[in-house]
Amino acid sequence: MRRILCIGAGYVGGPTMSVIAKHCPDVEVVVADINPERVAAWQSGQPPIFEPGLQDVVQASLGRNLRFTADVEGEIGKAEMIFVSVNTPTKTFGQGAGRAADLQHWEKTARSILQHARRPVIVVEKSTLPVRTAEAMERIFRNRRPDQRFEVLSNPEFLAEGTAIADLEHPDRVLIGGAETPAGQAAMRELVEIYARWVPRDRILTANVWSAELSKLAANAFLAQRVSSINAIAAICEQTGADILSVAKAIGTDRRIGSGFLRAGVGFGGSCFQKDILNLAYLCEQHGLPEVARYWEAVVALNQHQKERFVHRMVRVMFNTLAGKRIAVFGFAFKANTGDTRESPAIRICQELLAEQAQVCITDPQALEGARQLFASDDGVMFEPDPYEAADGAHAIALLTDWAEYRALDYRRIQAGMERPAFLFDGRNLLDPEELHQIGFNVYPIGRPDRTSL
Ligand code: UDX
Ligand code: UDX
After folding, report:
1. DSSP alpha helices (H): ranges in 255-366?
2. Homologous superfamily (CATH) for 243-454
3. Whose Cα sits closest to atom 1 in ligand 2?
4. How far apart are CA 384 and CA 349, in angstroms?
5. Between β-strands 28-32 and 66-69, what pairing exists: parallel, antiparallel or unpaired?
6. Ligand 2 center–CA 227 separation, angstroms
7. Which of 36, 53, 271, 341 has the lowest tally of Cβ within 10 angstroms?
8. Of ligand 2's atoms, which has the minimum distance to the CA of residue 161?
9. Nearest ligand by distance to the CA of 51
10. Fold of domain 3-199
11. How far is 6 from 74, CA to CA, in rounded Å?
């Protein structure tokens, strides 16, 4: 393998190819994207996304064996292996709107590969796609010219944002799905050899294409389900005086359950969980399994409820009115260490606060620009990079993203500048409620006893 192309320089394509380029200096890695501004940013060594460690990895290979370009079609003609990493958002129109995956970018890309490929190509699905899409891709490729040959593999990406580079460098597993034919097996071996440069072989799993595709949806559904499960228990804790941290610890020490992904909070966000579950549910329905669809949909419904419950509690304890009150929103990204705001719980929470006629002042170390694109200043929203300024004159702080820097703030100074009584709603259980209470806050963590004095 001498030349790899990836179509789509997004959160998945960019970091993944940079790590492949790092470990395969003898392979030319090209990332092509239809968005010329994104391409220019990557090619300048300043990635258009924030991801710890990414810039160093990109800069180390740029100009050696890593290149970004907007010439998608020209590069297709030269590649031996093409990763497809274009976005597959939830459909917003027509059949399956709000649930099914929108495959228009993906299909256009497949047709473009068919039109421009000039040699045998291994096409690798990186985008998360509904089960059996590889089959559809193969059908498009059946219209090939005699000089063309295509082999389609599925290689779902399990990286999480904020830890993308570490996840790519030390994956729990790499999953490769291919056809059970000699050509399919040979293509899988080619891709295995690339990952084997830095991933131990026993962590490289192979499967048939359908199983690989379904595994990605299933993994995200399981992870999201854990978050909704712990949030459901947190709701019971709040009503009964139990502490979710003690409960999570007691559950998590059972080796069969495990301790990961048991942090209660304002709910899951990000581009994947909701999209993939809705997609899974839609698939279930298409295959005559409505009860299974309802089961997975409940995970999303509970996640919506968690965000609404957070704002209801704010309204209730703040004397049943937020009208005209300044609320400082600490964190807008869907999780720490990313500037990504896609499906962030903060979006819905800010909308609910605005519906209560609160004045919302958003602060975030990386996602303020993303917040600006979603809310206009005339909606009653302010944007403030400095958390101290954001909290100045506020009635309450709603902490929505688990940024470590929010732990290191001087809350005594913050409280001094706030209206009294000062409320703090810790939507991530990031801060020490006892300490904050001593300072004079009325503290409301998630799934833990309130600490109120006024
Ligand atoms: C990825 C996967 O592709 C998606 O299926 C998975 O569920 C989540 O992660 P992501 O990398 O986050 O998506 O998407 P995004 O950051 O939007 O990047 C997609 C890129 O593809 C964009 O830069 C876009 O310009 C590019 N694109 C899109 C093309 O180059 N060609 C197209 O036809 C469409
Ligand atoms: C997820 C999957 O982890 C990854 O494998 C897949 O490739 C893409 O989707 P990502 O969305 O980047 O990754 O972030 P993740 O760390 O999984 O967090 C998702 C959401 O769940 C975040 O909003 C996070 O704050 C929330 N979460 C996570 C919790 O509320 N509690 C937890 O215990 C864990």
Report:
1. 273-286, 290-317, 345-355
2. NAD(P)-binding Rossmann-like Domain (3.40.50.720)
3. 160
4. 18
5. parallel
6. 9
7. 36
8. 12
9. 2
10. Rossmann fold (3.40.50)
11. 13
Tens digit of pLDDT for each residue in 6-53? 999 999 999 999 999 999 999 999 999 999 999 999 999 999 999 999
174, β-bridge pairs: 204
Q: Is the pLDDT at 360 greater than 70, yes or no?
A: yes
**Helix (H) or strand (E) run with residue 220 in it:** helix 209-240
pLDDT in tens, 181-222: 999 999 999 999 999 999 999 999 999 998 999 999 999 999
Q: Which residues are 101's β-sheet partners?
A: 90
Residue pointed to by tokens 């939830």: 90
Residue spans of the domains in the chain: they are 3-199, 243-454
Please, which residues bridge with residue 32 across strands? Answer: 7, 69
Q: Is the CB of 86 under 6 A from ligand 1?
A: yes
Q: Is 343 left (phi over 0), alpha (psi -120 to 50) or beta?
A: left
Residue 31 pairs in a beta bridge with 6, 68
Residue 48 CA to ligand 1 center (angstroms) comes to 13
Domains 3-199 and 243-454 share a fold: yes
Ligand 2 atom nearest the C-alpha of 157 is 7
The pLDDT value given to residue 184: 96
CA distance 381 to 363: 11
Mapping DSSP to helix (H, G, I), strand (E, B) and coil, where does residue 83 land?
strand
Nearest to 242 by CA among 250, 427, 453: 250
Structure tokens at 436: 């904050």
Q: What's the pTM?
A: 0.93
Farthest-apart Cα atoms in the chain, separation: 79
Identify the residue whose tokens are 């099914």: 100
Q: How far is the CA of 207 from the centre of ligand 1 (A)?
A: 24
State the Cα–Cα distance between residues 271 and 263, nearest whole angstrom. Answer: 19
Q: What is the C-alpha separation between 87 and 409, in angstroms, rounded?
A: 37
Q: What's the average model confidence in pLDDT over 55-77?
A: 97
Closest CA to 51 of 199, 156, 166: 166
